[in-house]
Structures are given as C-alpha cells and as structure tokens.
Amino acid sequence: MSQFTLNLIVIGASFALYIGIAIWARAGSTAEFYAANRGVGPVMNGMATAADWMSAASFISMAGLIAFTGYDNSTYLMGWTGGYVLLALLLAPYLRKFGKFTVPEFIGDRFYSSSARIIGVVCLLIVSITYVIGQMTGVGVTFSRYLEVSNSTGLWIGAALVFCYAVLGGMKGITYTQVAQYIVLITAYTIPAVFISLQLTGNFLPQLGLFGTHDASGLAFLSKLDQLVTDLGFRQYTGHHNSTLDMVLFTLALMIGTAGLPHVIIRFFTVPKVSDARKSAGWALVFIALLYTVAPAVGSMARFNLTATMWPGAETGETFSAEPITLEAIETSPDLEWMRRWQLTGLLNWEDKNGDGFIQYYNEANAANAPVAAIVEEQGLVGNELTTVNNDIMVLANPEIANLPGWVIAIVAAGGLAAALSTAAGLLLAISGAVSHDLIKGTLMPNISERGELNAARISMAVSILVATLLGLNPPGFAAQTVALAFGLAASSIFPVLMMGIFSKRVTKEGAIAGMIAGMLTTILYIFTYKGWFFIAGTNMLPDTPDAWMFGISPASFGTIGAVINFAVAFIVSRMTQKPPVHVQELVESIRVPRGAGGAIAH
Amino acid sequence: MSDRQSSNAYWQANLKIIYICIAIWAIVSYGFGIILRPMLAAIPIGGTDLGFWFAQQGSILIFIVLIFWYTARMNKIDAEHGVDE
C-alpha cells in the first residue's frame, strides 16, 4: 500500500470520527451552543482544553523551535504551560462562578459599562482572528504535504470540516470532537517519539531518553548533541546565549497571554462547579504536559538525527570520522526518499556548491571558530550546502528521518490536522460568541429570541470560518509571527482587566477602559515598529534586531510590558474616578465564593 | 455582618495560598530555570545541569503538582468557611 493511500485512510477515518461526533452532539439551545450546558466533567474538559490549546504551533512548530535553538527556547515550554497555574489560581474559578457565556460579558458587567464590553469584544476579535490565521495556514500546509493537494484546496477541505461540527454542535459538538482530537494528536506525537528515543537512547520514555545515554557512543545524549553541533560551528544546544531579561519577559508574556486567551477561558465555563474549574485546569495541564515534556526530546533527537544523517560518522564515533553524505545518496538512496519528498514542499533544500559530490551541512557564519574549520579547508567548502531546513519539518518529517513505518507517518499527518482543527474550532466559537452574544444580543438587538440568537451564533460562526479561510489563503505574516501578536495582545489587554475585575473592588470602568486601551495600543505600536505596519515588510520604522529594541526587549516579549502599563494606568485612573457602585462591589464579593454557582444540568 | 466577616476570612485564606503558589511558580521557572541557572550549574543531570532540567521538564511537573495542591487546599478551605458547593 502506498504512503498516499495510507495517509488517505488514516486522515479519512479521523475525519469520519469527528463528523460522527458532531452529529451525535448537536446543540439545541444557546446554553448548549456557548457552554455545553455546563455539564462537562473536569477530566473531559481538561482533555478538550488541551486539544483546544495545543495548536498547529505546539504540534508542528514548537519542537523545531527548540531543536534549532536549544535551551534558549525553553521559554515556549515554560510559557505555554505556566499560564495554566495563573488560570487555576487567578481566573477560571471566579469566571465560572460569574456564570455567563463570554469573556466580554464579564468585562461589561464588572465594569458596569457597555463601552468596556465593546472594547473587550474588539480585543477578543483581534486576538482570536490573528490566532486562527495561524491555524488555517497550518491546516493548508499539512494537507498539501500529505494528501498531495494544493495548499488552498487543503484549506477549503479543513474549513468545510470545521464548519460541519462547529456550526452544528457549538461548544457541545466542539468539546466532544476535541476530546477525540486530543487522543489522535497525542498518539501521533508520542509514537514516533517513543521509537526514536528507543533507537537513540534505549529509553522507552522520551522524557527519560532526553536525559539518558546515547547508546552508540556511550555519552550522555545531550553531551553528544552539544558536541556534534558545536563541531559544526552551531551554538551549544544546552547553552544560554540570549538576553536573560528578554527570556524572562518573553516567558511571562506567554504565560499571561495563555491565561488571557478567550478561547481557553471559555472552556472553563462548561464545567458544573467552581471547584471543577480549578481541578479542570490541573487536568488540562496534565494532558498538555504529555506533549510538552515529549517536545524537547523530539526536538533534540530530531536535530541529532538530521545532523547525523548529513555526517554519518557522528552516529557511532567522532563527527568527522566518516565522509559526509554524498549528493548521489540523497538523490537515489531509498532511505533518504524523505529528503526528496520534502524538497518538493520547499521546506528542505540542498546544493552542492563546490561540486565535490558531497553535501556538507555546517554553520558557515561561525565555521572559522569551530572544529569544522579543518574540513572547510581540506574539502574546499564555499558555504553550507544544506541550504534550507525549515523548523516545521522537525516534527512532520521526524518519523521519516528515523525510518519509521508508513502508518506512523500517516498518524502524524492526522495528528497535525487534529491539532490545527481543534484550536481553530475553539477560536471560532469564541469569535462567534462575541459577535452573537456580546454585539448582537448585548448591544444591537437586546430583545432577540433564544432561537434568533442561536441562529445568529451559527451565522457568525460561518462568516468567521470564511474570513479565517480567506486570511489563511493570504496570511499577513508567517504563522508564528501572528501567534506572537495574539499572545502579546491577550497578555496586555485581556488578562489584566480580568484579574483586576476579580481581585480589586476599586478599579472603575474608566480605569478598566483606559488600561485596556493603553496596554493594547502600546503593545501593537511596539510590535509594528519593529515588524512593520500590519506585518507588511519594509514598513518597519526600526530594524528588528536586539540592538534596536528598547532595553533589549523583543517585540514578542512586549506583552509583559503592555500588561504592566495596563495595570498601572487602570489603578491611577481608578484612583481619580468615583468608586464602582454598590451592586458591582457585591458582584465581586459573590464571584469570590464558590457557593451558589448554579447546579449542573445533566445531558 | 457575620456573613461578610466569614467571607473576608475566606478570601484572606485564599489569597495566602495564592501567594504561596505564585512564589513557587516563579521560583521554579524564572528562578531555577533561567536566572538562577548558573548557580545550579554544579549539579549535573544527564549531560547537562539542573537548571536545564527545570527549564525543559521540572517546572512543568511542578506546575501540575501546584494546581492539584491548590485545588485540594481550596476544597478544604471552602468547606471550613461554609462556602463550598
């Protein structure tokens, strides 16, 4: 059976499963559509949250980001998990007690102002739409690679599938498909990792393999990897090379950004009780950690395998103990068929620059200071000959690099799609809730009937899917960049206003509005200053380099500063304005205690 | 009035646990994983040092323990102050 047929069967089966669940879990009321009737148990909600949360960026890109940077990108691992501690401690239980359907609704009620609610909607829309673009791009890439269709066809297929279960099922349909998608994606991520860990270190668990021994050389795996990459002139894998301040700020921006993402927060509205919201955050993190503790192993081992493919001597002995890989092997060897296949996608490429019949992979920028200098001299190298290695192939090509069987490759494809689709669905639900519940019912047509609102929710969901797909066809920047923007904005606008709404009775509507606007605008300005207006290349006012950054703070880390500005402005303005009315102070008292959250509705 | 006092005491108890958890959360990630890593460099673990382990694995495991510990403590405090569900 060909690889294509296998991919088709596995991906097709996973899609049939999602659609089956969607039909079984159709939503009949707005309570079902927005919050699955608050009848989802904490463990199941944790699993759905994990799928909702782990996007194409987590599944496809993160291990590659770690693979090529090493320790410095631990920021993603800590940042994208530590946010759940903040959610469990500072937001989820109180917002569940509040007991409404959307994040802007809380902002509007707590800050007794429909202007605040509208600003909340604007923040939510900017965050969620930038985030969903990245997911749709991920869907397109995965489809085009595995099902041999064009990028845009892949996108439309993905959009049609999300349309089926998100529009029909709302939160209820999305929750149960996300549970299925979690199982698919975690299986897909773990299986190749277990195989590769066994091959390299003899450890069944990748988490142990990462800190285990490289079997063939008898060295600690990470020492072996450090040695291999530094031999070739790359930075030491376990070393700390970037600014410590920026690393702290970036991790913090990811953590508070995670806690401020509306599509993650609304998942905690679906559990029956306040104590379940706390517990559910814990379970979500357990399920997330199953992937996040495997990712650094996948990254480092894929980096090792790729590099050792180029320098076969590294497998058993010294890096330069054997000749580098030949051009002939890359172009004809059945073991290296994956290189030829990935070359077609443009994510991998090579060029025999000096025409010696070998492809030498090394860091030409730093070759003079590394052991590879001798090879450069001896073999007459004129530059690195593995010219393109995209981060994303570290996960997608991983099973092929390690020569794993075809069905593993097919499962990885289904897993990548599950990760992107589950996140896209969660985001689309947050968007449609904000439009139909906050804008239409909350502001424009307060007297709309339950049926009318449900229809409005479905229509806004369909429109959101269309917009997301069109944006995915013409992404404004590459996926990771837009996701960085989403985190920066969630950190600087939504997280602070929610936290102040719960932990302070003194913050007023003027304070909250001024804080949100100040936090969001400074963050957007800072990002656009270095990345270009709306990410259009060439329109940046300052070069995007550490020397030009204010105090060495990168645009992606600025969300932390934006959050500080938000808090500061909100407190100062609140001091200068009239205290919130008594009923608002009572609302804050009431969300602080769990009792009376409204019982579960069985379904 | 007694209701208000009880809910104040409850809130203070909650805040105290939140402070403890946030302190641990910050120490394992920003502390051991990043800023204090050079101080932990002497403690080797599988080809690297303890700080690297905290940054890539240890902090995540401790985050999980923290949330479940917080949940258990809060369930107890909810019951003690009569605000459980």
From TrEMBL, chain A:
Q: Name one GO molecular function term.
A: symporter activity
Task: Classify the main location.
Answer: membrane
| Residues passing through the membrane, by range | 6-25, 46-71, 77-95, 116-133, 153-170, 182-200, 247-269, 281-302, 407-435, 456-473, 479-499, 511-528, 548-573
Its annotated compartments are:
Membrane
Record keywords, A-Z: Cell membrane, Ion transport, Membrane, Sodium, Sodium transport, Symport, Transmembrane, Transmembrane helix, Transport
Gene3D superfamilies named in the record:
Sodium/glucose cotransporter
Q: In its keyword annotation, does this UniProt entry include Ion transport? A: yes
Q: Which family does the record assign? A: Belongs to the sodium:solute symporter (SSF) (TC 2.A.21) family.
What NCBIfam families does this protein map onto? Na_symport_lg
Q: List the protein's name.
A: Cation/acetate symporter
UniProtKB/TrEMBL annotation, chain B:
The species this protein belongs to is: Paracoccus tibetensis
Q: Where would you find the membrane-spanning parts of this chain?
A: 17-40, 52-72
Q: Does Aminoacyl-tRNA synthetase show up as a keyword for this record?
A: no
Residue ranges occupied by any Sodium symporter small subunit domain in the UniProt entry: 8-84
Which Pfam families would you find in this protein's record? DUF4212
| Domain of life (superkingdom) | Bacteria
What name is this protein filed under?
A: Putative solute:sodium symporter small subunit
Q: Which UniProt keywords apply?
A: Membrane, Transmembrane, Transmembrane helix
User: Which InterPro entries does the UniProt record give?
Assistant: Na_symporter_ssu
